[in-house]
Amino acid sequence: MAIIKHKLAGIESNLYNLIKSDPSMNIFNLFKNTELV
Hints:
This protein is 78% helix and 0% strand. It has helices at 2-21, 27-35. The two termini are 18 Å apart.
């Protein structure tokens, strides 16, 4: 369970960095990106 939580935290920080670097990205694109992880 801890491994899954850790992985989710990593994905969240990746999304946060994406939003910070490109504010124009919308939620749909963010979800598309998470599918690639």
